[in-house]
Structures
1.
Amino acid sequence: MAENSFAKKFIPKIKDFFRELPKKNSFKVFVSVLISILIGLLVGLLILLISNPSTAFRAFGGILAGSFGDPKSVSVGLGDLLYFATPILLTGLSVGFAFKTGLFNIGASGQFMVGQFAALMLAFYGTGFGRFQWVVAVLGGILAGALWGFIPGFFKAVFNVNEVITSIMFNYIGMFLTNMLIKSNRVIFNETRHETRNIAAQAFLPKLGLDKIFPGSRADIGFLLAVLAAIVIYIVLNKTKFGFELKGVGYNRHASRYAGINEKKAIILSMAIAGALAGMGGALKMLAPGVHYIGNTLSAEEVLAAEGFNGIPVALLGLSNPIGIIFSALFITHLQRGGFYVQSVIMIEIIDIIIGVIIYFSAFSLAIRTFFAKIVQKRKMEAELEAENPEPKGGKA
Amino acid sequence: METFYFIFQQALYFSIPLLIVALGGMFSEKSGVVNIALEGIMVIGAFCGIFFINVMQKIGAFASTPQLLFVLALLVGGLAGMLYASLLAFASVNMKADQTIGGTALNLLSVALVVFIARTMNNVKQIYFDQQVFTIKEFPVLSKIPVIGDMFFKNAYLSTYLGIIILLVAIVVLKKTRFGLRLSACGEHPHAAQSLGVNVYRMRWAGVLISGALGGIGGVSYIIPTTVSFGGTVSGYGFLALAVMIFGQWKPLRIFFSAIFFGFFSAIAFAYFKIDFLNNLNILHKGDFFKMVPYIATMIILAFTSKKSRAPKAEGIPFDPGAR
């Protein structure tokens, strides 16, 4: 009896849910993202076929198999997936959070690099913190990233300088500055290998049992912290007055000012938080112990951190929703790992091509949605017209 | 004085591509489309132009007429940039896509695409070319003019003069022609323009295509004087060009001066060791320090000039004829 009433109560609700689903905006957005992913993959396949038909399908299969294609074992593949997803999850959150508050943070790269740098410094000089050294180092990375986001935010709020330009400038300033500081520090820098020395094991992130779940992989606490950050950002954006104010300023800066929100403070804080997230990503990457507990190094090359730029597609694909970003980071990393495993037959840049195409088409998502909405509307109107005058249109003939 | 001329010549190598690309960005934004894809367009243009040179030099074509080869490479780069920009035009004009996202996608795509193609063909991403044949050591008569001869007519590249020509044409087109005025109208108030019978879509397409052509040309003219190989990057000069455009307040002549300004700082980063008092500064790894200077200077300048921004009012907003 009880089961029956349970079913009676919920089955209509579920039915309603699925009947209403296609009308929901979030569902339409989701479908348009899926369409973009499909187009991206198809373009990728096409390019593979053009460049080398004989290996195209093998390569494409490898890309789709992604992290499951690890030659050692699936558990290594999945653990590595979490490890490699961590930095871009955080840069994705950084970009996505800024998007939600109406800002385009293209400076995640620089924020990521100063985060790495701060973590590196604390890994070398913060031995006094003992067991908590990694915590301090992560916090240091967060602070450094926050500072690197704060400055473009300040310039935007006070001087009305477009944050896109300033954060790009700060990518380069961050890169040259950290390079300079690293290279001139004899304790940290190994001149002959042109990279920093390995950080000490004391500063490593703990693995927290993930090495038991995914034996032989690089997985560590970083991924869990990144997911935690996503949840916190989700709560801040959706459940707090502070988040509401930030989003309000994003929608309409002037209206928010009249509503009594300090819009300058909101812009500065948004950029600082976005920077903090990217900086955290840099710190977590720097402090990761890896498989063999050797520890990471940082090479002083004149290349902007790719993780920062990869945060943009992650955020866009995740529709700037913190929870969505967790999945899009995993998805993009999955493709990247797949490309990595089949590197012998293809050039790994194909993954970036696929991602670029996906983002290009997801920029259309509005157009795709309105296109479908128009079809639905048209059908509806035709149906209504027919209902009003039952005579067939072609009656004259 | 020798040092001054050297720095000035270096500055031109950096300024001219910035000028050309920033003018391109101006045409796009004047029409109402934010072109953040300039970086990607430069990459595509540079790739096609340099690849063309690479192939031609390999088969020995144009060996006796390197300047003709340069011109052709600029053309190839410009055409490629225009084609690539049409992707942005389609997305932002016809599909009413978010222009920043569309542009970012094209930036991501461009680097991946050119490195993929280069590596698929040659296994390495660098495309080498013989750069020295393009240097004009000395113009016969003009280089003898005091001061100016040393500044403009020694160790020069053809792209310098092309850049100046593009600047003059841009000024005339924007200020004196029907096309230019209509283009600006589409970026300021597209509905008003439409009510006067201007086809806003077509004007925006034109703006983006011009910026694509100039972006591609700028890409080639950035690579040739400054390096001997192309490795899939233009080191953020597309973004710097956007900053130059903003600093220049969307006005051709002001863009010219701001491009010179940036080029000067870049040249110092490149050749600081030739200037005694900079070389004697007591900073470890000065090279990195001086490389930061153009970007820091940009920040400071923008802070002072952005308050009263003259950005086209409707830039970044997709045109919807039905909107009120």
Note: The radius of gyration of chain B is 20 Å.
2.
Amino acid sequence: MTIAEERNDLSNEEGGHEHEHGGPRGIYLWLTSTDHKVIGKSYMYTALIFMLIAGAMAMLIRAQLTGPNNHIVSQQTYNELFTIHGSMMLYLFAGPFAFGGFANYILPLQIGAPDMAFPRLNALSYWLFVTGGITMLSGFFTSGGAAAFGWVSYAPLSSYSNAPGAGPDLWIVAIALTGFSGIFTAVNLITTAFYLRAPGLTMFRLPIFTWNMIVTGMLILIAFPILTAAMIMLYADRHFGAHFFTVSGGGSPVMWQNLFWFFGHPEVYILALPYFGIVSEVIPVFSRKPIFGYKGLVFATLAIAGLSTGVWAHHMFTTGTVLLPFFSALSLLIAVPTGVKVFTWIATMWGGDIEFKTPMLFVIGFLFTFVMGGVTGVMLAAPPIDFAVHDTYFVVAHFHQVLAGTAVFGGFSGFFYWYPKLTGRMYRESLGKLQFWMAFVGFSLTFFPQYLIGLRGMPRRVPVYLVSDHVTFLNQLSTVGAFLTGASFIVWLINMWISWKKPVAAGDNPWDGHTLEWATSSPPPHHNFVSLPPIRSARPLWDANHPEHADYKNQGHGSVPREREEQK
Amino acid sequence: MSNFKSVRERRVGRKGLLLAFFAVVLSSCSSTFGGYRGATTQGQSEASLYQGFMITGIVVAGVTFLGLFYVLVRYRRRKGTNRIPSQRHSNLPVEVIYTVIPVLIVIGLFVFTVRSENKITQVSSNPNVSVDITAFQWGWRFTYSNGVSIVSQGANYPQLVLPANETTKVTLVSQDVVHGFYVPAFNFSRYALPGVTNYFDLTPTSTGTYVGRCSALCGLYHGEMLFSVRVVTPSQFQSWLTQQKAA
Amino acid sequence: MGYMSQTIVSHNSRESEPIRFNRPSMLGVGTMVWLSSELMFFSGLFAAYFTLRSGAKGPWPPAGIKLDVLQSGIFTLILVMSSVTMQKAVFEAEHGRRKSAIWWIVLTLTMGGSFVANQVVEWTHVAFSASTNAFGSLFFIMTGLHGLHVILGLVGMIFLIGRLAGRTDDPGELPVIQSLSYYWHFVDVVWIALYSVLFLTH
Ligand code: HEA
Ligand code: HEA
Ligand code: CUA
Ligand SMILES: [Cu+2]
């Protein structure tokens, strides 16, 4: 049997830490653990802490902007704040939270594997990520301050003469470290998904979450190395007098933008796809239906990944150096597969039995916020419109809606959905719902006014504006929203604290889940499974728990449209 | 009950949508949706494109949210029930429809985009006026073809003077880092890049004074790299230019 | 749990299975996946090369840049040949001839080492530096990063020799030697591309 051989391989890789059975205890075992569940959890909590820190920076940004000429922070500090806020949110929160956290924890469980393919490499990824995060933050403690050239670090603003000091160097090193961390995780996840699937789990029976993680991994392998290469060139320019981005020596500043966005645009889908995956798990379970149009969803994911490597210059429309119609057309086209996903999710709920538990509420917040941000993204994809609002708060509003929609609403949906599995405990439903409503109202109040602010011509990355811009009131609204959002995270912290102090056992499968992670105990044992249900469809656990409604009896398109009242 | 039982209901829904659509279209033809009307011919072309996108966006988001809202209300779990709904997991016609319609919308959007874009990016070979604009940390230099030059000085924001209803060709360069020449009321911005020369036309349509600013992060005083644009009649412009030359 | 279940084969079972050559090992799959990212990494460098080359105002490479095409060509040949010796080592190892495999790896190591040595000589002898102009920057960054990869491969070979010389029942050593050979071939192919754009454009 092939599976035996694979498992053999795995045990070799792991060598001698059978002593870890029963889960590691104590700080030493945590530090040395190679269990994907421990690493996954560490990733998640670390990323969330980075999110809180970056969010606190956003609070300072918003405070500064409540008046046209505030002096809450200095101009230099302001520039450092948004640079590190953006960099942390993207590199240290949104990416690692999903791809390091959820993927690590959930993917092996969903495919019935005992661990990742390369557990030690996995631990290395995590520690690279932590080191990168600390490195980035340490910039604030250097004499020149942290990097202050925006998360995009445009040359030649990022050259040594324009950005002297150690802060920018620490930023470069931090990005490189988190980049390697992401690449290693991608290698690990892809190999795991191809090699360690349980018998019967064919590619087209993989949960959509797993599919999205595979595709995200591929995008990481395509995009991150380009960033690493660009960072090395930037570092060489700064310290070895190289001329990659300096005009005088035959270099090209615009080349930085091309290299950066060739990474940067796929990056935004690297941040979005994992959360699409989470949503694709939560919706079916809370609607008690299979995902609608499974194959369509898989192909849409692949199409998004494919298209996203060819649209980078829509961030450079106003440079006058790129082929406008080509990049515009491809950017507009991405709306199609993304739309397929949105409609698929709605169709999944259609005819279902929808239960509004906290994870599902966050999904609805995700759908609303993401579609709003997506539609304004389509506007930005038209060069003439981009000429009018490029580098204004219109763009800031667009990307916060798509990012907060995915990473915050999608992310917390997944967090509450899998929290019982991770900890064996239940969170408090009422606090979860309170958090959702505060975050939802808060986010909307923060970012809807920013569209108008942008349309009235307020550029981004400025600490001051004019009274005559007529944006003061809108900015104040935005700030109120931001603080409401901030408060919602305090509710979350309280929820976690209560559930930790007064645990309520969750049970192995509290949601009547469909996929294999629910087929083991909560939290799962060291090597995940004692036994697996037979896998005959994409929803093995549903099949096992609802034999009359099993998917493998229902392979034709849309047969068995019977409903039945069932008393449990 | 099957899950797609409500063919009739869906018809009603569609009629409602159609009504909503027309309401939106009618009420919005005059609205600029928070954007500027555009004080140049180029900017006006942008404004109408933006209007079209905005209407499309409202319709697309509206239809999506209506569908979402309907599903959430109609198929919410009711208290005390525990039913297993139909396990239907695909429906090819539906899937084709929700793929093809967005494709068509996108093609339409693209056609209008290209038309507008060509108008806006067109550079005339014999403009009425030519200005060289140089961006630097943190100010601007406007140089007219007769040698008149206006530069930022300390806290004084420089003013770019343009004739109305005539085409001015701008040549834009940067002296140091990336800057952005941005006039919100013109619905237009363009980067000033080191090592690259950019050209564009501005054809203001109405006189007045407008705020201009640097849009690309360029260092410490990026937020204060302002200028203004004053659009005057062509004759006023000529006399201003000769006056400056004399001074 | 109330369902029929399939028991997982214990991950500790170590019954030896016949070695199969047709299916890459897990380590091999992982290596290939990782090499795809390496491919993108070098693509980024090549993208920079072609961008700067197409934007160059004068001749390419700029006046004053002189490289010893012949000498580097010889060592290019040596590096390419080392791919062959590496593959020979893999074949030997696959047929259980570990001693012979070790010697083939030692040969590969020597060839790779001589390539690195030549590069060091070259770096110290060229009349330009990374700060001379864009070509200089490209030359040092591209050859430098490639050289780093070669060195990494050599270090890997040293460890591999140690492993082959050790326990005879080591089940992991075949995947390791195969994976290292994928890597080595990759590094070779990249060099051929580098040699053509950096040296053969004169
Ligand atoms: C999660 C991250 C994420 C996602 C998913 C997206 C999604 C999209 N983005 Fe966004 N974007 C960012 C993150 C993201 N973006 C960031 C961070 C920036 C700024 C970077 C910086 O400068 O700092 C940015 C900037 C940005 C720009 C540059 C703006 C500028 O700097 O001037 C553009 C321009 O084209 C753009 C376009 C798009 C498009 C077309 C989509 C599409 O993928 C959206 C598709 C989705 C929908 C359209 C909604 C659902 C679909 C339907 C309901 C179907 C029917 C719809 C139609 C037919 C219209 N984005
Ligand atoms: C996932 C990505 C993400 C997320 C979630 C956010 C979240 C937020 N962002 Fe951010 N933002 C970016 C990504 C993100 N941002 C990026 C990429 C940029 C561009 C950077 C650049 O220009 O280079 C940017 C820029 C940016 C700007 C523009 C700055 C400028 O251009 O001048 C603004 C202004 O309002 C802003 C605001 C906010 C606010 C109010 C939130 C809020 O939603 C945040 C809410 C969260 C909290 C408030 C946490 C609360 C914490 C506590 C209550 C406890 C504190 C405890 C401890 C410290 C332990 N962001
Ligand atoms: Cu100049 Cu911003
Ligand atoms: Cu993009």
Note: The beta strands of chain A are 531-532, 564-565.
